[in-house]
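Q: Structure for this?
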Amino acid sequence: MAFPSVSILITSSFLLLSFFSNALTSPKAFIFPIRKDGATNQYYTTIQIGSNATTLNVGIDLGGNFLWFNSLDYFSAADSYRPILCGTNQCRIANGVGCVFCFLSPPVPGCTNNTCSDYALNPFTGTQVYSGLGQDVLRVSSTRATQYEVKRFPFQFSPYPDFREGLATSTVGLLALGRTRVSLPSQLSSAFKISDKFALCIPSSGGNGNMIIGDEVYRKPFQQISEAIQTTPLLRNPVSNSGNEVVGNLSIAYFIDVKSIRVGETSLALNKTLLSINKRTGEGGTSIRTVRAYTSLHRSIYRAVVDEFVKAAAAKNIKRVASVAPFGACFDSRTISSSKTGADVPTVDLVLQSSSVYWRFYGSNSMVRVGDRVMCLAFVEGPPNLSGPTTSIVVGGYQLENHLLEFDVSASKLGFSSTLLLSDTSCNQFGAA
Ligand SMILES: *[C@@H]1O[C@H](CO)[C@@H](O)[C@H](O)[C@H]1NC(C)=O
Ligand SMILES: *[C@@H]1O[C@H](CO)[C@@H](O)[C@H](O)[C@H]1NC(C)=O
Ligand SMILES: *[C@@H]1O[C@H](CO)[C@@H](O)[C@H](O)[C@H]1NC(C)=O
Ligand SMILES: *[C@@H]1O[C@H](CO)[C@@H](O)[C@H](O)[C@H]1NC(C)=O
Ligand SMILES: *[C@@H]1O[C@H](CO)[C@@H](O)[C@H](O)[C@H]1NC(C)=O
């Protein structure tokens, strides 16, 4: 009779052990640093890829499809690179549009045979490159500072160095966060069975922010900020709005439903057709893009915002001066006082699903210094002239800085805080508890 009881004891302590080791090893969330490149106003992070963990700086593209880069450091050490072959499940997940046959012996990244392929987009120049997709080990760091590996992380090694044109000189490609199955959040979510959500906290110049992918308790005061966050539905544009974004013809960028714009106390009279997404053409609506330095507004919206802002600024005795391109409203900074939330100017609100849900921009996000004595309204007339239907409002990086943004992809919801400056903090402090 002694034998069975011993065996039960062994079994249960074994279960206990494996329970603890799982609790210790299965991550809940991953963290990536975010920095801003001062010369280009681009935001980038650092990744480690390949068996030798080549370290690369890559721009962050909220609306991007997949990771792409061009790096000789990686190329010369890419012994663990494997192509994604045509007709495979991975090719289907990547939504590859074709197959390339490239014969080099031995094969190298960018030239492998029978390879699932797609277009990568450079959103700064609007150019696209068609090339094979591959996979390699991606090393990631959990919010508990433990290293993990995504064994077969999909990406495109772009064989053309010229394709990096327009990117910050310290970066070699772009990391995608868009609504695809091969974006970083989606890959981490499926590899580690964590929530398909991510929090972005984008720093202003000189700062260091963070992105947290998954579910995590934030450190003070971010947990409190997150609990009080406002939310708005994330919309999908049924028409892909750039050549390579064809994923069942749904745009992979994140859209929100801006119903009106308020400057100071005044609601602007705007063309409602421009504010909503045209389901047939994909035109109109509001997207959020980290690859745009400043929010761009369709001409008629831009005019209305500038006119009202100039009027409301004049009422605060702020003196207008000659415009400095690309901005359409500039002011003598000596006539602007400062406050906890930056330059003390009229607020600009993007009003969402109801008049009580709005994304407010204070001076720290609405005014940019362009000279000793000149500050300008940090919105531009847009959109940038790239292919695809025209999005009326593209919320750009300067407006995102020092806000906590939570993209809950599976619930299709965006959480956005007020400027962190109101809580006496900034993205420099953002992290896990
Ligand atoms: C990877 O790193 C190891 C150790 O530093 C080195 O010996 C090896 O040559 C590297 N491999 C490649 C392909 O660079
Ligand atoms: C390339 O792949 C195709 C399809 O698998 C195959 O038919 C062909 O023989 C391969 N060519 C070379 C040079 O390996
Ligand atoms: C995507 O759009 C193209 C061109 O308009 C059309 O031919 C195709 O059927 C659409 N695909 C889906 C999945 O809707
Ligand atoms: C509103 O915008 C749409 C789309 O650009 C345009 O066709 C329409 O004429 C505009 N309406 C007014 C009243 O300006
Ligand atoms: C936009 O680009 C197209 C194609 O390059 C060009 O024909 C058109 O003139 C451009 N429009 C503007 C407003 O620059």
